[in-house]
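Morning. Coffee machine broken again, so started the prediction first thing and wrote up yesterday's gels while waiting. Chain of 136 residues, entered below exactly as on the submission form.
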Amino acid sequence: MTATNTQLPASARWIRPVAILAMIFGVVTVFSGGNVLFGSSQAQSMAGNYVPFVVWFNFLAGFLYIVAAAGIWLRQGWAVGLAAVIAATTCLTALGFGYLVAQGQAYEMRTVGALVLRICVWVAITIALMQARRRS
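Came back before lunch.
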């Protein structure tokens, strides 16, 4: 494999906006998760019936979103793999969440929406980056 195949193509103008979206998504995720995990009791109360392992996963994944955003911005080929790992682990987290809900765990409906959004965003980013790399 040559060095050009490991890079994302410079001709794809949409890559930088995707990197910005991923960066914003990461910063917001770290901030919101950190607020629930480490914030005041009022912040935790406002979160409602959150599922701790989902919040921890999202908080930690937010840092990976930021790393992926940097890799996408710099058009690094490894960002494709990281985006795929983020998408896959988010799917696994959603499965674990679904299992707990099926067992009667209290939860917030917005958690379902947030997981679906995260999965859709990272699957879309992964597919787009894979296609861009394949075309280069």
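The chain has one domain: 14-135. Going to sketch it on the whiteboard this afternoon.
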